[in-house]
Amino acid sequence: MTALQFAVFGHPIGHSLSPRIHQAFARQCGIELEYRAVDVTAENFESVVRGFFEGGGRGANVTSPHKAAAFGLADERSAASTRVGTANVLSRAAAGRLAAHNTDGDGFMRDLAERQGIDVHGQDTLLLGAGGAARGVAWHLLDAGVRTLTIVNRSPAAAAALSDAIDEPAEVHVCCWDELSTRGSYDLIVNATSAGLLGATLPLPLSLAGPGTACYDLSYGEAAGGFLRWASSAGVRYACDGLGMLLETAADAFALWHGRRPDTDELYRALRAQAA
Ligand code: NDP
Description:
The protein is α/β, with parallel strands linked by helices. Helix content is about 40%, strand content about 20%. A six-stranded mixed β-sheet has the order 2-1-3-5-6-4, with helices on both faces. The chain has a six-stranded parallel β-sheet with strand order 9-8-7-10-11-12, sandwiched between helices. The structure holds NADPH dihydro-nicotinamide-adenine-dinucleotide phosphate.
């Protein structure tokens, strides 16, 4: 019998830990599956994903830069993906239909609050980026009670579009990169850009952070290195990458596909120990 087929689609994708994580979850739950990483450009995304599901694929994770496209090609959309307009999980539904879901926000908050112990309530928060991942976490930060959410993005129009979609003008503000040096410091800075993944450095003034600031980079591994080094040189209280978020979002996708949520703590410790 052929093993159940799963994949993650992104560009680039070589850094992805998703195949390893899903195989470890599968071993934990006694399930046999195949999970591969597929590098696909924006122009080929739809045809490659449709081909994967037509060929028997059961489920897919979708990462940068395809989350909005994944949402667009689905036939059915969960409430979580509809609210943010992006999807990081696609599943085969009845009659060959594709269902979209987004686990980014829940996974982010579970790691941030429960594993890293960061209480965002009442915090002035700076969100770097306005792409798929930023959309995935922005509403959850507001739900969790941040005092203000300032969104800054390289293309100002995307930041304005995200702010308009959230439609909470008392709490949500937009600002330009050039203005950051005049903004003072924030309690929490969340990097949701793909700059590190693409080998670019973010121009961040040290004045954004102080001894009370917590920094969280959604990227993990080498991609998070630049932002975490900046945080360290700014003398922040706490800084971490998105490895824990990746595990939590993966566990939610796994539960959606297999009806059982695996434990994430042991794998988190093992991956952290390897990275040290
Ligand atoms: P998208 O491609 O949808 O968005 C990329 C964002 O990064 C945009 O806001 C873009 O700005 C910005 N950006 C790209 N390059 C630069 C640069 N050189 N300088 C400043 N801004 C830049 O990607 P995603 O939102 O899906 O993913 C973003 C990152 O988050 C990735 O590294 C991804 O791996 C990580 N991630 C991690 C998760 C986890 O579970 N740990 C989950 C989701 C994402 P512009 O609009 O101007 O192009």
